[in-house]
Structure formats: structure tokens, C-alpha cells
Design brief:
Blueprint (H helix, E strand, L loop, with lengths): L1 H13 L6 E5 L4 H12 L3 E5 L7 H9 L3 E3 L6 H12 L5 E4 L3 H9 L5 E4 L2 H8 L9 E4 L4 H24 L7 E5 L3 H12 L3 E5 L3 H9 L3 E2 L2 H7 L2 E4 L9 H6 L5 E4 L13 E6 L2 E6 L3 E6 L5 H4 L6 H20 L7 E4 L2 H16 L1
Parallel strand pairs: 1-2, 1-4, 2-3, 4-5, 5-6, 6-15, 7-8, 7-10, 8-9, 10-11, 11-14
Antiparallel strand pairs: 12-13, 13-14
Length: 362
């Protein structure tokens, strides 16, 4: 991760996070561990938890050995995750790095005084601008709003690794299989394009007229979910919204069809009251009306992380470098930032773009 390596050397000298407690909610996996070391080199005290199903236990142990406080393990469910969030916030961090706006929501509920923070995801950005609108009295730089993250990490990183996660988890072929991709944002378009490049038959569902038109011009058939669900062999959600796929959609699907999610939370497929039975690691059978059997991958968590190795190293080098520089900006220049969610400053985007281009050209 050459961009982060360069930032580490610079931040060891400047120490922009000296004596600052940084609370993190981010997938605890090897690439995140590199970011944690950069923040420690920058002078921060780091406390971190992951998201349900995405913590790699050996990485957590390795981080603890370096003095980073880590809450959680691979087996954590949504209930344990809430406890882990509360544990991170009990350290009273001044700066937060959030993933799904869980730390920001906890800070708002508890009245924790936060200098500022960052948000990694579309889901978290939606929560900050909707559910938590007006409740977060500190600046939050939304990394997901960066054009760099959209192009490099979301489109190419998520697109590639969700397809890899599907193949690893199911051991099935892509060609001629019918895939419905629900949501054509940056992640959704990456997934659809990579599936198509592997030979999959892909239909796109998006209620936003502009995105739907873009998908059509990109060569995809566009349908409503009511039509796409019974057509598909595999249905993948990537909207960042809850309860997109409902019981009536499940009951309309083919016997043996597969469900997966690439959004941040496992809430996109409404599984309330559905009987679930483990089949093998990463696969559960769902029993629905009419004796149909559907198959759920990675418990509905993010398929590229829970069912694979996460985004490619190069894409995360870029995304986590945006995080490191944005956290330093929040800590050092809070007065120059507005309250609430806001995009990555342009100079940070351009700095990281130059660094990545140099790394790729080397």
C-alpha cells in the first residue's frame, strides 16, 4: 500500500493527530490494520470495532499486540455490534471514523462531544442526511462522496470483489446465469459490469430515472423489481436502503434462486419470519411459501467482505489514504469545516489522485 506508506512517513514527522483519541468503526481486516498503524504514527490513540461478520480475528489480535484497542470478533451479530459501538464510544473519542453512521448516531444519542469525523459509506451518508439530519453538531467528511472512491473503490473494487465473493462462496459459474442487480449507483454499476464481463445475463433495477437510463445506455435491460425477482437466478442488493426485497419478492422467485447483498447493512433483504437453515459455510437455505427453497449468501452481510477478502489492496490504499488525510484535516482545521456531512476537500482528492497515479506508473 504505497500511498499509505508515504503518508505514514510524512505523518511521523508532522504528527497531526498527536494525543487525539480516534474511535473507528471499520471492517477489521488486513488493509484496515495498515490504516490504524498510519494513525498511530500520526500520534493518535486508536480504538476500533468492525461490522457484523467482517472482523478477521487474527487481524484483531495483531492490532491488540500493537497497542490498538479492538472490540469484537468474527462471530459478532447485530446485537453484539451495538455493544461494541457503545464500547468504542466509552473511550470518549474526539475524532471518529465511521462506517454506516453507527458511531455518529451513538454520539448524538449520548451527547458525546466530538470534534469531527469521517464517514465511509453510502448507507452512512444517507443516515446522516436523513435519519440523523440536524442531530450531528460536528463536521463529517463523507469519503463516499469523493469521485476517487466512487470510481476506484466502489465501481472497480466492489464490482470485482462481489463477483469473486459469489464464486468463492457458491463455487458456481457466472456465464449464462441470470443476475438481477438492485441499485445502479457506483457499486451497483461496477457489479453489473463485472458480471456482464464474466458472461452473466444481467438485469438492473433502479427506481431513479437517471440511473435507470444510464443502465439502459450501458447495455443492460432495466426492469422493476417485481419483474426481475422471478426472472433471476441470483439477486444482489446494493442500495444502502432497508427492506428493498420483501416477502412477496422472495415468494415470487424460482426454487433454488440465490440472494446476496453488497450494501453496508444486512437490512436490504427483509428476512423477518423466514426460516433459515445452514447449508455450508457462507450459505443458508431459506424456506418460503409453496415449498420453495432459496439460498442466502454470507447471512445477508456484505458479500465481498463476509464471503471474500474485501476490496483489492490498491483500491483500499486509495480509499484509506482519503480517510487518513481527512481525519487529519478534521483534527487540525475544524473551524474551516461546516457542521454535518460534507464532501472530501478538493485538495485532498487531487493529492491522493496524484499519489495513486504515481504508484500505478511506477
Amino acid at each position: 500500500m504505497p500511498i499509505l506508506a508515504g503518508l505514514s512517513e510524512e505523518m511521523k514527522a508532522s504528527r497531526p493527530l498527536a494525543d487525539i483519541q480516534v474511535g473507528i468503526c471499520l471492517h477489521v481486516e488486513p488493509k484496515t490494520a495498515v490504516l490504524c498503524q498510519v494513525l498511530v504514527d500520526a500520534g493518535a490513540e486508536v480504538v476500533i470495532t468492525g461490522s457484523p461478520g467482517t472482523t478477521k480475528d487474527p487481524v484483531a489480535e495483531s492490532l491488540r499486540a500493537t497497542g490498538v484497542t479492538v472490540y469484537g470478533c468474527a462471530a459478532d451479530d447485530a446485537v453484539a455490534h451495538k455493544t461494541n459501538i457503545a464500547s468504542v464510544m466509552s473511550h470518549r473519542p474526539q475524532v471518529i471514523l465511521d462506517n454506516g453512521a453507527d458511531l455518529a448516531a451513538c454520539a448524538a444519542r449520548q451527547g458525546v462531544s466530538i470534534v469531527g469525523g469521517t464517514e465511509e459509506t453510502t448507507t452512512g451518508a444517507n443516515r446522516l442526511r436523513e435519519e440523523l439530519s440536524g442531530d450531528v453538531p460536528f463536521p463529517v467528511i463523507v469519503i463516499n462522496d469523493s469521485p476517487l472512491k466512487a470510481i476506484v473503490e466502489n465501481q472497480h473494487g466492489v464490482g470485482q470483489t462481489v463477483v469473486e465473493g459469489f464464486m468463492r462462496t457458491t463455487n458456481l459459474l457466472i456465464p449464462r446465469r441470470k443476475f438481477a442487480v438492485i441499485g445502479y449507483g457506483w457499486c451497483g454499476r461496477g457489479i453489473a459490469r463485472y458480471l456482464k464481463s464474466y458472461g452473466g445475463d444481467v438485469v438492473v433495477v433502479d427506481t431513479d430515472e437517471i440511473r435507470a437510463l444510464e443502465a439502459a445506455l450501458d447495455g443492460f435491460e432495466v426492469r422493476g423489481l417485481d419483474a426481475a425477482a422471478p426472472w433471476s437466478d441470483v439477486l444482489i442488493t446494493v442500495t444502502g436502503r432497508p427492506d428493498i426485497v420483501r416477502r412477496e419478492h422472495l415468494e415470487s422467485m424460482k426454487d433454488g434462486a440465490i440472494l446476496a447483498n453488497a450494501g453496508h447493512f444486512s437490512w436490504e433483504i427483509d428476512l423477518a419470519g423466514v426460516a433459515r437453515h445452514p447449508v455450508k459455510e457462507g450459505v443458508e437455505r431459506l424456506d418460503v411459501a409453496g415449498g420453495k427453497r432459496l439460498y442466502l449468501l454470507a447471512s445477508g452481510e456484505m458479500l465481498n467482505l463476509a464471503g471474500g477478502g474485501g476490496n483489492p489492496i490498491e483500491t483500499m490504499d486509495l480509499g484509506l489514504s482519503l480517510q487518513a488525510l481527512s481525519l487529519a484535516r478534521v483534527a487540525q482545521s475544524t473551524d474551516a469545516l461546516v457542521t454535518g456531512p460534507q464532501p472530501v476537500p478538493d485538495d485532498i482528492n487531487r493529492d491522493v489522485a496524484r499519489r495513486m497515479l504515481a504508484a500505478l506508473s511506477g
